[in-house]
Amino acid sequence: MKRRGGTFFFLIGAGASLFLSITLGTALYSKYQQVAYPPSLIYGTWVEYDVAPYLAEQIVINQTGVAVNGGVVDTQISFDGETLRYQHGAQERVFHFYYHNWNEMKLASEALYQPVYVKSR
Question: What InterPro entries does its record include (predicted)?
Fold first, then answer.
């Protein structure tokens, strides 16, 4: 009977250790991403590319949040060096940056229309 109890506690300890390792690893990786790719890399004004100037959407990203065509839509962004995420109303907007080029991003959350935005300043 003692043998079973020891095995049980060993498995509980191993599971807890695994959970703790994964949690700490995820937290460390997240911190690394914030240091290696700070959101300030993408701060600026982004303009929809290859669209008539009077129709082009303008996105401003800065330390206070995201504004689209002059109106603030979110005060928090998520940026990991490759992907930008923010809420625009009920919809999450997702943009991808390719080849560590932080001067051009492509909308990925729309299935039919995926415009490219270029950093203008």
Answer: DUF2850 (IPR021271)
The answer to whether residues 72 and 32 belong to one domain is no
The answer to pTM > 0.90 is no
**Are both 70 and 109 inside the same structural domain?**
yes
Which domain covers residue 9, as residue numbers? 1-36
Exposure letters 58-82 (e unless 16+ CB within 10 A, then b):
ebbbeeeebbbeeeebbeebebebe
- What is the rounded average pLDDT of the residues 10-27? 81
